[in-house]
Design goal:
The complex is a heterodimer.
Chain A (H helix, E strand, L loop, with lengths): L1 E9 L4 H19 L5 E5 L10 E9 L12 E6 L2 H11 E10 L6 H4 L8 H10 L3 E5 L1 H8 L5 H10 L8 H11 L5 H20 L1
Parallel strand pairs in A: 1-4, 4-5, 5-6
Antiparallel strand pairs in A: 1-3, 2-3
Helix pairs in contact in A: 1-7, 2-4, 5-6, 5-8, 6-8
Chain B lengths: L11 E5 H11 L4 E4 L7 H8 L7 E4 L3 H13 L4 E6 H17 L5 E7 L13 H7 L3 E2 L4 H18 L3 E6 H4 L2 E5 L30 H21 L4 E3 L6 E6 H14 L6 E5 L1 E3 L3 H8 L4 E5 L5 H13 L4 E4 L3 E2 L9 H12 L7 H11 L14 H14 L6 E3 L44 H11 L7 E6 H7 L1 H9 L5 E6 L28 H8 L3 E5 L4 H13 L4 E6 L3 H8 L6 E3 L18 E4 L4 E4 L9 H5 L5 E3 L4
Parallel strand pairs in B: 2-3, 2-4, 4-5, 5-7, 6-7, 10-11, 10-13, 13-14, 14-15, 16-17, 17-18, 18-20, 19-20
Antiparallel strand pairs in B: 1-8, 6-12, 9-11, 21-24, 22-23
Helix pairs in contact in B: 1-2, 1-6, 3-4, 9-12, 10-11, 14-19
The chains are: A alpha/beta, B alpha/beta.
């Protein structure tokens, strides 16, 4: 078994928490299955005023996993918390046949706002990724999170969306269990709701 | 509960590298822990501070790395197990004591954790501190993953006590900040065998000048390092596999060995190449090296950082196995001696060395190149509502009003972003003397950035050299004020340097994750303590022109800065406003009230120049906007708009 995923976003969007929830759930799932040789690695950089900067968390699960970074063209899933970041990571890392799950809510950079750079359109981003043989799923995860109770739960909406994908190797109920353990106690309900709404959205889209 | 404090032995959990190191220290019964925050090392002590109530150890954020180092050393001399943590550049601050302590050795196990930063993700440089371990002649361990980080930390205490030397544990960003599965071990209670013995085993043990003097202590250190070779030889962290019928091999250390193992797997070479994984890297296990190199004709060395192991192996091979073809970062270069490693890069390097052709999908490469043109850069910014936005706006205004080519010397902290620039803004560099570049954004204000506190020293140099073309300023944060600028302030007064020093006081050590410091009002473990007033210190040191101002008040800030730069002699402005993130965490901020009056907005984009990420611009309708998910109602943009188009919504 080998599963590679990169969560791409902007500092402050919660990509690190999402990667830790997913990786923790992967460990629990492997322990529950008695898969002792399964290793889990999360590679990311954080801690230095990364708010507003591009952030990518690499998550690897498998028996031959040693290093914290996903090789080029080897990501089974790119979970894009922000469209431009989904493209930034997707173009280098998505595996042919891989899946990009993308929140369509833009977070414009200072470069774009000051008119020194252009932000590609969502349809351009999606079609570019499709040219690399990626399957692209889009959702307005920020809007869904607001419906669940807070925009901050967008990262968990995206985990729900991931859980609805056939490529996801970690059972949804274990993800929910870890969410309960890892988010602040007062926000458990909102986050579980966010997870459910994200799951339902993609589940319905995939059935169509 | 924090999982690092868990007593569920043998449970497999997810830990970041720094948490694994913290856990290793607890499992070893650590008694004293000290550090100055520095990315990527901060979470070690942050974690230990958070769970301090559950244990008997003492933990502190010290004022700088030298003090932190001395606290750990002092505790160790009387028998306590101690750990000191720092980032790569932090070691430079501790270097004085670091180089001399090994002459006397230590008593209680002492572990020095240094987190390097290949790729310079969060650092001013990429220095490889393993050189320092070699330089100081102390054992050095280099973990390959989180489990090993925990085991090595624990083992380092044992090695330290066996050799009576501090032990160096070298981490890197991709280990300290990466996570992995770790099996928890048993937590050991501190031994608490504290006592002082002036002549412990050696006369005048803790005094490098004590008769017969420093040279004899240096000789003792060499004898200890001889013993250390035996430990390295038997270390479980140095292992190798030797397939039959191969004359090609890889030596890899630390995280480099993780990339190498995975690259061999990707290339299908795991059973074709001999592989020596090193974890105990100074001194090298020469017996194991000898055994491994027998029959090897082609050798590839993979390590994160500089060619530290490569040089030692090359000199060993030259003496014992001349004729081995060695590939690495130096002579037969397959990897650069700068930047960081990854699996693809290491796989390419290995392929190059052994003459393996890697398949490339040219069509896919071409498609990628086309797409990459669309990926616009994302320059990092200060946070929405950050007090530094107000400070930099005021600095810009204050300087624009004064003719000349001004120099603003920065240093490191969140405010260093005032010198990052905007990536897509292309600069044409020229060699014109004092040409001066107009400040087009708050991210282009700082002209020099080096290290903690370097700004004020550089400013004094410029002033004393006779710079007359403009004003000379320096900026530093509150934590940096205490860490690295106290002697510099005295220096400025003593030499009557004509400089203005701006202290950007946001009450926390923010960039490394909001650690408390003497301006915060709480101590390392969160208990209330008194606030040390920066203005009073400066006054006592002899600065006569001191201003304290709130950076959220634009006009007052501009005025304070101008009064200071017009003053002859050293002047100080404290721009005091708490970090907006910390304020929000306390206040449970909901919907912002700031909004743009669409009838009044002229689309002039002046507000965008503030550099706040919460200000947006609708290019179609030529109108500014406020991102309600980011805005914190700091009130800065309201003061900047010339048309009164940004106001606060009434109500609530």
């Amino acid at each position: 078994m080998m599963f590679n995923m990169i969560i791409a976003g902007v500092g402050g969007q919660g990509s690190i928490l999402a990667s830790h929830i997913f990786a923790d759930a992967a460990i629990r799932a492997s322990v529950a299955n008695g898969d002792n040789d399964i290793k889990v690695r999360v590679g990311e950089t954080f801690g230095a005023a990364m708010r507003g900067g591009a952030v990518a968390s690499h998550v690897k699960i498998g028996s031959d996993v040693f290093s914290p970074l996903v090789p080029e063209d080897k990501a089974d899933v790119v979970l894009g918390l922000e469209p431009l970041e989904a493209l930034r990571v997707g173009v280098n890392y998505i595996a042919p046949g891989g899946m990009v799950i993308m929140n369509i809510r833009k977070y414009e950079s200072v470069d774009v706002k000051t008119g020194q750079a252009e932000y590609p359109s969502i349809s351009d981003i999606a079609s570019s990724l499709e040219k690399l043989n990626a399957h692209v799923i889009t959702l307005d995860a920020t809007e869904i999170a607001i419906k669940a109770g807070t925009a901050k739960a967008m990262n968990v909406v995206m985990l729900g969306a991931l859980a609805a994908c056939p490529k996801n190797p970690v059972p949804g109920r274990i993800l929910e269990e870890v969410i309960k353990d890892r988010v602040p106690a007062k926000t458990i309900e909102v986050n579980l709701k966010a997870f459910e709404l994200g799951f339902n959205k993609v589940n319905e889209d995939l059935r169509r | 509960m924090n999982i690092v404090a868990s007593n569920r032995i043998n449970e497999k959990v997810l830990l970041i590298g720094n948490e694994a190191i913290a856990r290793g220290a607890i499992e070893a019964g650590v008694e004293v822990i000290s550090a100055y925050p520095g990315t990527p090392s901060s979470e070690i002590v942050e974690t230990l501070a958070e769970i301090a109530d559950d244990f008997e150890y003492y933990v502190e954020w010290s004022m700088n790395e030298k003090i932190a180092f001395e606290i750990a050393a002092g505790a160790s001399l009387i028998g306590a197990r101690s750990l000191v943590a720092m980032k790569n550049a932090g070691l430079n601050v501790a270097m004085d004591t670091f180089m001399t302590l090994p002459y006397t050795g230590i008593k209680g196990g002492m572990v020095i954790v240094v987190a390097d930063d290949p790729g310079a993700h969060h650092s001013s440089n990429e220095q490889d501190t393993r050189f320092a371990a070699v330089y100081a002649e102390i054992p050095c361990l280099e973990p390959a993953n989180q489990q090993e980080a925990k085991e090595m930390t624990k083992e380092a205490f044992e090695i330290s006590e066996a050799l009576e030397l501090p032990v160096f544990l070298r981490s890197v960003t991709r280990l300290s900040h990466a996570s992995g599965d770790v099996i928890l071990g048993e937590i050991k209670k501190p031994l608490k065998k504290i006592g002082f013995n002036k002549h412990w085993e050696i006369p005048y043990r803790w005094n490098v000048y004590g008769p017969p003097g420093a040279v004899s202590k240096h000789k003792w250190l060499h004898l200890q390092m001889g013993k250390s070779k035996n430990i390295a030889e038997k270390s479980k962290f140095n292992t190798f596999t030797l397939p039959i019928n191969t004359d090609m091999g890889i030596i890899a250390s630390g995280l480099g060995s993780a990339y190498a193992a995975e690259a061999m797997f990707v290339l299908g070479l795991e059973e074709k190449l001999a592989f020596l994984k090193l974890g105990f890297v100074n001194p090298l296990p020469e017996g194991k090296l000898r055994e491994f190199l027998k029959g090897i004709k082609k050798l590839i060395i993979i390590e994160e950082g500089d060619p530290v192991i490569e040089r030692q192996v090359r000199s060993f091979a030259q003496e014992n196995f001349p004729g081995i073809n060695i590939f690495g970062k130096e002579i037969k270069q397959i990897l650069n001696p700068y930047g960081e490693l990854n699996v693809d890069y290491v796989a390419k390097g290995i392929s190059k060395a052994i003459g393996l052709q890697m398949k490339e999908d040219q069509e896919r490469i071409n498609i990628k190149k086309e797409i990459q043109k669309k990926v616009s850069p994302r320059s990092s910014t200060l946070c929405a509502g950050c007090p530094h936005l107000g400070t930099y706006w005021a600095v810009k205004k204050a300087l624009q009003d004064r003719k000349g080519v001004h120099i603003v010397n920065g240093d490191i902290g969140c405010y260093e972003q005032g010198g990052y620039g905007v990536f897509s803004h292309k600069i044409n560099s020229t060699d014109d003397n004092s040409k001066g570049y107009p400040i087009s954004s708050p991210y282009e204000i700082l002209d020099t950035i080096y290290v903690m506190g370097s700004g004020i020293g550089m400013a004094m140099g410029q002033s004393q050299a006779g710079y007359q073309d403009g004003k000379v300023l320096a900026v530093a944060g509150d934590s940096t004020f205490f860490h690295a600028t106290l002697p510099a302030v005295v220096n400025a007064v003593y030499t009557e340097a004509n400089i203005t020093y701006l202290v950007l006081d946001n009450s926390w050590t923010c960039m490394t994750g909001h650690q408390p410091n003497p301006t915060t009002g709480i101590n390392t473990t969160g208990e209330k303590t008194k606030i040390i007033d920066i203005s009073k210190i400066a006054e006592t040191m002899g600065i006569t022109c001191i201003k304290v101002v709130d950076p959220y008040t634009v006009e007052e800030s501009v005025q304070a800065i101008q009064e200071a730069i017009d003053f002859t002699g050293p002047s100080l402005v404290i721009l005091r406003g708490e970090c907006a993130l910390q304020v929000q965490r306390r206040k449970k901020f909901k919907m912002p009230k700031t909004f743009i009056d669409r009838d009044k907005c002229t689309g002039c984009k002046l507000c965008l120049k503030l550099g706040c990420p919460a200000i947006t611009f609708d290019n179609e309708n030529k109108i500014a906007g406020i991102d309600s998910l980011l805005c914190v109602d700091c009130g800065l943009c309201n003061q900047i708009c010339s048309f009164g188009a940004i106001t606060l919504r009434k109500g609530e």
